[in-house]
Design a protein that fits this description.
There is one protein chain. This protein has 295 residues and is an alpha+beta fold. The protein has 2 domains: 71 residues, no CATH class; 209 residues, Cyclic phosphodiesterase (Cyclic Phosphodiesterase, Chain: A). It has 8 helices and 9 strands. The protein has a 5-stranded antiparallel beta sheet with strand order 2-6-5-4-7. Strands 3-1-8-9 form a 4-stranded antiparallel beta sheet. The longest helix is centred in the C-terminal third of the chain and has 17 residues. It is globular, with a radius of gyration of 23 Å. The two termini are 46 Å apart.
Length: 295
């Protein structure tokens, strides 16, 4: 195997380019200038974002095309760092039977909480209020996943080790039922978004917690950040900008009371699904970790 050369820092690459091209005219858009302070700062949720911004800021204004700088910085993103996310399979699908009630509940919440969007596809819920069928399909008809670990940056040489250990730790899994029993609101770590979610609080909680513990052990051995100390397995349906968790929680609790008083469902859970296994997504590839064994 060929030895890997040291990764040149952006400052060194820029110095090399400046030396070859005596008077480069670099214009960084004002809206991105604050990002120059820490150009290679990697976040846990978007570990490649800052590196791509470097390519944009340095190569686009100068039209480097296939210059040494753009090649080597791109190399950093594609070879040395990947992102890893671990979650349940198959994807959680909300059954058709509770969807009509869920649509009515979510419509009420949408009227009271400004700026709610469907998770992942980022469609404003207010744009769907005129058509219940479309609302149901867009908001509730998609796939959901239960996260078993943080989305983290890993180095390429760690990939095989992480996958091997995950398969060892999670190889003996049996089928169990998962009850989504409670509407809750979560706020992300940097307080930029608040999420309307359905939480697992009873059925399946013990099994999922054991799986999270196994993932944490693998992460710990690779010096990766572990999951939250008191995990609360859930799927998120909608989000709003900023830290509006207290306000959203008040709206949800009030609407749940009204919903039950007006003849809403008396079931102890929102819906139930079956555990099918675990997958791990690294970069743009998804790896099967385990599938359940029949009880």
């Amino acid at each position: 195997m060929a030895a890997l050369l040291p990764i040149p820092t952006p400052a060194r690459l820029f110095h090399q380019y400046h030396h070859r091209h005596r008077q480069p005219q670099i214009t960084i858009p004002t809206r991105h200038q604050h990002l120059c302070l820490h150009p290679l700062l990697l976040s846990s949720t978007h570990p490649i974002l800052s590196v791509h911004l470097i390519i944009y800021k340095l190569s686009n204004p100068l039209e480097f095309e296939a210059s040494l700088m753009s090649k080597e910085i791109t190399l950093c993103t594609s070879i040395f760092l990947l992102t890893a996310a671990i979650y349940h399979l198959p994807a959680v699908h909300i059954p058709s039977s509770p969807r009509k009630e869920l649509v009515q509940f979510l419509r009420k919440v949408t009227d009271l909480v400004p700026g709610l969007h469907a998770v992942d596809i980022d469609v404003p819920l207010t744009s769907l209020l005129k058509d219940d069928n479309k609302f149901e399909q867009v908001v509730l008809g998609r796939e959901f996943h239960i996260s078993l670990g943080r989305t983290v940056p890993i180095r390429v040489h760690q990939r095989d080790s992480v996958l091997t250990m995950l398969r060892q730790k999670l190889q003996f899994q049996k089928m169990y039922w998962i009850d989504f029993a409670k509407w809750v609101v979560f706020v992300n770590d940097d307080f930029t978004r608040s999420f309307l979610s359905m939480e697992v609080i009873a059925g399946g909680l013990a099994e999922i917690t054991k799986q999270i513990d196994a993932v944490n052990e693998v992460y710990r051995l690779h010096n990766l950040p572990e999951f939250y100390k008191d995990p609360r397995p859930h799927i998120s349906v909608a989000w709003a900008s900023g830290d509006v968790g207290d306000f959203m929680t008040g709206v949800v609790e009030e609407e749940m009371k009204r919903f039950s008083l007006t003849g809403g469902s008396s079931r102890k859970h929102i819906f139930t699904c079956k555990f099918g296994g675990v997958k791990c997504r690294i970069g743009n590839r998804t790896y099967e970790i385990c599938k359940f064994q029949e009880l």
